[in-house]
């Protein structure tokens, strides 16, 4: 029997770019990255205000590729800051779009994924889905405790790429995904990590609990943070920005670009080297913090995300964590592919999409 053809548009809105790709079943037909001008982005008050601009960017990309929306079977968008979700696909509906538009948990670029997918799919009457949203939450109860009963730990990490690389690693190791224990550290503009056991992400280091990263502060001493918030130097928005956007490498070195930092190090800048090495040191400690979750029985540590292209970073981290388990480097991210493949499984009936229930 002839294989049924499904064309799927994947949309991944990032903090500085919008990435799209069109797949025909498992084959990528084309992909495009639109880099958004930083000054232009700064002129928008919230992510949702960028909707029209990003939508036009996507339509322009499709037009340049001479590709019509009418050819598509479905649209897949990166899942954003919704309430805690299960892994896998969710059908995008008006309730989800309204939640992300009017009361998202956090103002995050990924919130635009579902809204853009819903609008583009709606114009031709096809379904749209998110897949492995950033808020997939499979934490065990013990992992939710903080020491302050009114504060509860919640999962939030680079789920899409982490699960995709972990699934591939299990295959490479010839193991069933449900039988392995992996620690995965995604290192991009933000750094997050997870421990996957029994096929579930049973604990997570979010970008506010772990290492500092190119643009985020990560975990900071909490009493000093309270003092800073009440110092009169900050309001809620500016304090949040200092932690996310203006933290990490940006705060120490004035750039979120790791390649610029490496250039400084190559020119003998010892301070830049200390900070860059500090980021790797914290990333390694984050990995170490997750090992006891599975009592040290870790099959493999996976370093992924764009920073995993850096031999300096992966070398420093590996030197500190290789005693826990073998380290595998899977540089970059395959988020567009992971979105398309997930939705393809739904269209083929191999997976069932969940329905979103607004709280
Ligand atoms: N080849 C490379 N070697 C080292 N660092 C790199 C390389 N390519 C990109 N980076 C750095 O990786 C960091 C993250 O970049 P990227 O644009 O992938 O992040 P992002 O997609 O915005 O973030 P996230 O992965 O958190 O969603 C930046 O500091 C960038 O300079
Ligand atoms: C929210 C999960 C990914 C990130 O930290 O940006």
TrEMBL record:
InterPro entries assigned to the protein according to its UniProt record, in alphabetical order: Aliphatic_acid_kin_short-chain, Aliphatic_acid_kinase_CS, ATPase_NBD, Butyrate_kin
Keyword DNA repair: no
Catalytic activity: butanoate + ATP = butanoyl phosphate + ADP
E.C. number: 2.7.2.7
Superkingdom, natural source: Bacteria
Keyword Membrane applies: no
Main location per the UniProt record: cytoplasm
Any GO molecular function: butyrate kinase activity
Keywords recorded for this protein, A-Z: ATP-binding, Cytoplasm, Kinase, Nucleotide-binding, Transferase
Family classification: Belongs to the acetokinase family.
Protein name per UniProt: Probable butyrate kinase
Biological source species: Sporomusa termitida
Gene: buk2_2
